[in-house]
Design goal:
The protein has 73 residues and is an alpha+beta fold. It is built from 3 helices and 2 strands, in the order αββαα. The relative contact order is 0.21.
Length: 73
Amino acid sequence: MRNQAKLLRRKLSAQLKIMHNCPYCLGPLDANNAHQDHIHPVAKGGLSTSDNLVFVCSDCNLKKRDKVLISFL
């Protein structure tokens, strides 16, 4: 389980190297304001897999909370 978490963090860290904007609001995204978001919330059955995780700005992550993406957007 711990090795899986390290692998996911490494994959997501690669996202920050190529994406400099939040995928939700297009605002600036960097290591200082990036939050890991479950695209499909865990509260709604989402899993912590690389296909379901993305870095977003802290503002979007806090606003999205446990909403599904279509409801948030």
